[in-house]
Amino acid sequence: MSQTMPAPAAHGGSDEVLVEVKGLHKSFGQLHVLKGVDFVVHRGEVVVLLGPSGSGKSTLLRCINSLEEAQQGTIRVGDVTVECGHWGRTYEKSVHGVRLQCGMVFQDFNLFPHKSVTENVVEAPLLVKGMKKDAAAKRARELLEQVGLSDRAEYYPSQISGGQKQRVAIARALAMDPKLMLFDEPTSALDPELIGEVLLVMKDLADAGMTMIVVTHEMGFARDVASRCIFMDEGVFVEEDSPENLFFHPRHERTKSFLRHILPKEGDNVERVAGGAPLGMGDEAPQEMK
């Protein structure tokens, strides 16, 4: 399985490389999860990682934010580089520098249940950035309005829906003013009718120019919002291209097999509306995958 792939003709972002990963290896005991991953993300790009469970997608995200420590390779976000495997004071300083530039949204929300929606959003700016309380509260109000939750500011997580919790989680991540947003299957824990509201917020972020790396099985979102899609399997990048080319003209047999199982069949009603546009694939699988 080759890791060498032709680059897409256009990446959809600026010329500035915001994220650069080189030779990334991550193992859990004897299980080699990431096998020398190399890739770049340009400022303003939305890169969607696709692949079967266990392919290394979530582990890659967690390594970028140093929630998992890779054993080998380098990770650069902005002007901060983490040299994986070289633990010590310099490593810890660079990890902190990368985390200050990244916002991460998990599939299980991870909100503080004993804190209100507003308190969840202001926590990190107050404790990590040392922001003044009034300034943090003002920023929280702006972000909650941005994600459509101004009327839930004083509610607690137990009093709001799953979709609302995930929108709070997005606002919380944005409160740190990140250069990069990482989304790890942000809709997988939601009921189907709540998924659209979260995808809409993510689409709005992409339209505003936020750089995003997204692990998702929402093929419609990937088709309509991604600048570039990467198919992973067994810890390597198998294929990388624009959404149109990857979904309808895949080159690698493993990609074709994966898409054959997840793309809707002809006649399936899979449209999901977000931002006024259908986000379901809504098309029969292409001929070359049949």
Describe the protein's topology.
Layout: E1 17-28, E2 31-42, E3 46-50, H1 57-64, E4 72-77, E5 80-83, H2 89-99, E6 102-105, H3 117-127, H4 133-146, H5 162-174, E7 180-184, H6 192-207, E8 211-215, H7 219-225, E9 228-233, E10 236-241, H8 243-248, H9 253-262, E11 273-274, E12 277-278
Parallel strand pairs: 3-8, 3-9, 6-7, 7-8
Antiparallel strand pairs: 1-2, 1-4, 4-5, 9-10, 11-12
Helix pairs in contact: 3-4, 3-5, 4-5, 5-6
Features:
290 residues, alpha/beta, 6-stranded mixed beta sheet, 4-stranded antiparallel beta sheet, 9 helices, disordered N terminus, disordered C terminus
Task: State the gist of this model.
The chain has 290 residues and is of the alpha/beta class. It is built from 9 helices and 12 strands.
Poorly predicted sequence stretches spanning 5 or more consecutive residues = 1-10, 266-290
Rounded mean pLDDT score: 88
SSE ordering: EEEHEEHEHHHEHEHEEHHEE
What does the oligomeric state look like here?
A: single chain
Instruction: For the record, give the distance between the C-alpha atoms at the N and C termini, rounded to a whole number.
Output: 22 Å
Count of DSSP H/I helices: 9
Helix percent band: 25-40%
